[in-house]
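Researcher: We're teaching a course module on how sequence relates to structure. For the next exercise, students receive a sequence and then see the predicted structure as tokens, so they can try to spot secondary structure elements on their own. Here is the exercise chain.
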Amino acid sequence: MDGENGKAGNPADNKATNADARETDSSRRRFLAGGAAGLTGLALAGGFAAPAASAAASGRYRDSVVLIAGSTSGIGEATAHAYAREGASVVVCGRRQERGNAVVTAIREAGGEASFVQADVREPEQVRHLVERTVETYGRLDIAFNNAGIEGPRGGFDEIDIDGDGGYRDVMRTNVDGVFFGMRYQIPVMRKQGGGVIVNTGSMLSHRGSDFAGAYAGSKHAVIGLTRSAAQREAGNGIRVISVSPGGVETDLLERFLGGSLEGAGEDNPMGRIAQPEEVAAVILNLTAADATFLNGDDVKIDGAQSA
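Model: And here is the predicted structure for the students to work with:
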């Protein structure tokens, strides 16, 4: 543990501890390099242990079509790569065409199948076009991941900007309307084909307040409400709707959220660190798998026990 690092002790014990630490770091790198394709190799007490064949994908999503809104960076990008490694055809979506094309190129160079559709989730017609292009290109839509989001303004309710980029209305349009519009156009497609899975990105601030990011917290509370309501409505149509609530994850969004630096992030987490995007992606792939059929309408926290 961190509090024990400075303690004097038996030199042999110290050497063993250092060797264990090096092996844990090495295992963690192998796990992430392998794409975090499964959680079976994740040692919950003591760091990471690489899966027996971490670099070999199982192909469990072969013939599946996956649409990921907000996949030009961070969690969305990592999830796009993870699904593609498992055989899915992936539609990458975001506002930044250059970044979207770069993600698609990387997936194809690794042997996967992907295409990019530029769309702003704040605009319903663009979301409708995104879903239509997905079906036109690949013939169906099996999994939709509504992940696009922004951190929003920092400060009290009497201090933050209402309008403009990054203001109150912008965070609500992106984080709430984006999820609503996504499901509005994804659900009819899934109904017609007999089922599908929708995942929406919440946050640990979906479950508590924030003294400096109230707009963001409010938007992520709304994601949970939309998720639960859609799940109840569509369960009889073979559609599962779930949400995930990551804690701190090493992304540009978190860096901006914390004022421009990730230094010290995760120190208050029981695991002593923040998550990697690949770890969140690994959970999402397990939640949408064919054998998770009774998981519906729930929110899954991915926070390293911080809220436990």
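Model: If you want an answer key for the exercise: The chain has two domains: 11-55, 57-302. Strands lie at 65-69, 89-94, 113-118, 143-146, 196-201, 239-246, 299-302.
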